Amino acid sequence: MFRKFIKPIKILLLLFVISFLYACNGKKESDVVFEKEIPAKEDATKAYLHQVENYKKDKKYLSVLYKYYNQKIAEHNYLNAAEILDIACVYLADSYDFNETFMATITEFDAKYRKEVPTLKTTFVDAYLANYYFDKSNLKKACDYFKNITLLEPNDYNSCYSIARAYYDLSYIHYIMGKQNLSLAANQKSFEYFTKINNPKGLAFVYSNYANIYTAIGDKKRAVENADKAIKAYKSINNTYNVYIGLINKISIYDFMNDSRKTALIDSTYQAFVDSKDESKILKLKIFDFKIENLVQANKLPEAKKVIDELKPIVEEINSDDLTLEYKVAVAQYEIKKNPDYSNFEDIKKALPTLITNQQYEKVNMFYGVLQISALQNNDFKNAFTIEKDKRIIADSISDIATREKIAELEAIYETQKKEQQITLQKTTILNKNTTIALLASLFLGLFLTVVVYITKQKQKKLKLEKQNVQQYTKQLLEKTEEERKRIASDLHDSVSHELLSLKNSFEQKTDITNSKIDSIINDIRIISRNLHPILFDKIGLKASVEQLVERAQSVNDFMVTADIDYTNSLSTNDELQVYRIIQEALSNIIKYANAIAAKIAIQEKNNSISIEIKDNGKGFNVSEKLNGKSAFGLHNIIERSRAIGGEAKINSDTNGTIITIEIKKQ
Fold first, then answer.
1. Alpha carbon 421 to chain centroid distance?
2. Are 394 and 356 a contacting pair, CB within 8 Å?
3. Are 580 and 549 in contact (CB under 8 A)?
4. Per-residue pLDDT at 534
5. What homologous superfamily is domain 540-665 in, according to CATH?
6. Separation in Å, CA 598 to CA 520, 544, 604, 617
7. How far apart are CA 341 and CA 287, in angstroms?
8. What is this structure's pTM?
9. What's the per-residue H, E or C state across 149-164?
10. Angle between the N-to-C axes of helices 157-176 and 123-135, in degrees from 0 to 180, rounded to the nearest 10
């Protein structure tokens, strides 16, 4: 009964969070952490490549780039090679230029030379690949590459800018995927990093994303306010390109909110762009697409066709999947207006499943809009209503609020039309039969759905119970194994060892050789006994036992191991013993296979959990490959023992070593 209140409450909470973050973000001088460095004097070629105008106007730009890059690679000057690729990546990504030659260069650098350059100097690789996958509508991969950058910590102005920009791009992707909480969190991080370098352009980016988020949750006033803040910020630094981007963003807000001011803003932006004689092809595509929509709605089809024809060669030249889709929508709007029976929507329908799978909800909304216009123009209200319901199925769609309003509107039209038909049909006996069939079908459907829900819940309950049983069985198996080890260890220590000692003392004629052999046997038995079950573990506890294990590992293997233990015996003895076995297994693997010279064991007790970390500086290994192989008993042993005591083990490994972390929740 309370479900209908959840959405409004979530929206109110989101508005409160955004307002709170704004209130807390008054910029202070002390927030500036990294000052912009004065660039070092560059050689002539590098200075040439740094000029964006050369990229835009000189067809030889990429040839000069490749020649300079290959020269630096040949000189093993990988840092300089990285810096020049960094410059080019920005220019090409902003122009949607993902040509095969440059992509091959980036891929080669990533595979062969990236490790030779400090990590913070190579974020351009992830940024370029993220933009490539964004253009291909693969938002999940784009997110993954941007996240790679956000995991880093900056150490100068440029690295801080790269991380701030990655958070901004991540926020925008979450926005169009309908994940407004994630979008808000990423945008706030972007704000923090841009503030650290006092970058006005970056802060304008943040305002743009806040405008998007407010649009998604239906707050038109604040959406427009933030769009205007972004435009004002771009104007203050004379950034004409992004002023137009800000205006395009504002048009999109008006479009999303169905605001009548959209038409006038499109016309004024279009005219200003034409008068400025700006040569940016990206801006031209975006602004002219909107202009086509205006002309079509005003029934100025010859003018619309002229703009369409003017854009066509630019679309073909840029060859961007993202921009091509937007252009196709504009063309489809023109064709529908020109011919109400137009039905060539194959490209749009073909793209829809991929866009939905990749959560490209902004584009999905746009495509559904074209199909809906066609249905409405043909007075096919039933199909229009069905399309609107399809939009609603996308639960986290950014257009949720607008969709609800549109559904109410179309539902009213459709219901009116349906009632008129029913009045006519009431005069015949067919109506009664159809009504009876409909009622029976509804009843059957209701019963069917009830059964499906019940069966699903029972299956979930059964799976949960089976998981608990498996965990309990594993735990009992490990405890029984430890009990048996303890018994055998006790027998070895108390019986066999004792008998050998008595034998040693009973010899009438003792010899050094005999004594030495018996001492060796006794020592071996003690080692076996200790490995089966640590001596006095039940009395001295986990901390002391691990310290003894570390001490033995160092003395026997000439291997440096340190232990940092902050633990107060909050686990049961059986669980402590499993922790000891996990550390013992991990340490044994390090000594046998890692070729490491040092290792560290850390146990930290928190309020609700206990954290264990075992790391080494060895050669590392491929974790997934190893776990799927036939010689990973030790690793699986660590994982299963962790699960048995309510913990989770994570294994990360690379050429710098291996880290095993285990989080155990306190019962």
1. 50
2. yes
3. yes
4. 67
5. Histidine kinase-like ATPase, C-terminal domain (3.30.565.10)
6. 29, 20, 20, 6
7. 28
8. 0.51
9. HHCCCCCCHHHHHHHH
10. 20
